[in-house]
Amino acid sequence: MAHQTKHRAALYQWHQLIQEACQYAKVELDPEIQGYLLMTLVRYIEDDELAKDAIQIDLFNETLDADSNHHQALKSRADHSLMLAGLFPAHIDRQFLRISQYIQLGQVSYQQLSRLLYDNDKLIYQKLADHFVMLVDVLHTIRAFNGSPTIPLIQAMELWSDTGSKTAYQTLTLNRQSIPLNETLAEQAYKH
């Protein structure tokens, strides 16, 4: 009973943190997407092996079998991409890849999953694909709340240029030494 109470308290705290990060990042996510992000975060926090897998697996060269585990493999690839892009951007940089490559991989994986499923499951995975950049923005904001360094300016410029990320744009504009040049993306950042 005490364990369940602690677990519920932790869920509530993470839920509050996600909502605060959404507000700070000026990102609107519907409750279903926030709930998915919450449960994914909790899974990665509670399972050390899962977090290690996210960092160690080469998602770009991993093959997906067409057997019964195909759905789970797509979900795992997309979730790993989300966690890496949002929480472990330094790992991506060490691989000489761009965060946007992981964003695209995650989006495509969620989209493929949505095409294979029906009803509500189909809809949630399509929403996750559509809101992937916003989810990464929320995770970057959570990192900043925790005192972790935000992404370096070069990664912020790439991420903003490739995806229109709001937090990447904020990182660039808060640093007086850099000014984003793409006016179309700058206008989009202010609209959303």
Strand content: under 5%
Query: Could you say how many structural domains there are in total?
Result: 1
What is the subunit arrangement here?
A: single chain
First CA to last CA: what distance?
43 Å
The profile of the biggest β sheet is:
none
Uncertain stretches: none
Q: Averaging pLDDT over every residue, what do you get?
A: 82
The coarse silhouette is globular
Structural class by SSE content:
mainly alpha
Global Rg: 17 Å
The DSSP helix count reads 11
How many β strands by DSSP? 0
Order of helices and strands: HHHHHHHHHHH
Q: What is the helix fraction of residues, given as a range?
A: over 70%
What does this structure look like?
The structure is a single chain. This protein has one domain (2-151). Helix content is 76%, strand content 0%. It has helices at 2-25, 31-46, 48-56, 70-87, 89-94, 99-116, 119-130, 132-145, 153-163, 166-174, 183-191. The model has no long low-confidence stretch (mean pLDDT 82). The chain is mostly helical and 192 residues long. It has eleven helices and no strands.
Task: Throw out a few tags for this protein.
0% strand; 11 helices; 192 residues; 76% helix; mainly alpha
Outline of the structure:
This protein has 192 residues and is mostly helical.
Q: What's the SSE blueprint?
A:
Blueprint: H1 2-25, H2 31-46, H3 48-56, H4 70-87, H5 89-94, H6 99-116, H7 119-130, H8 132-145, H9 153-163, H10 166-174, H11 183-191
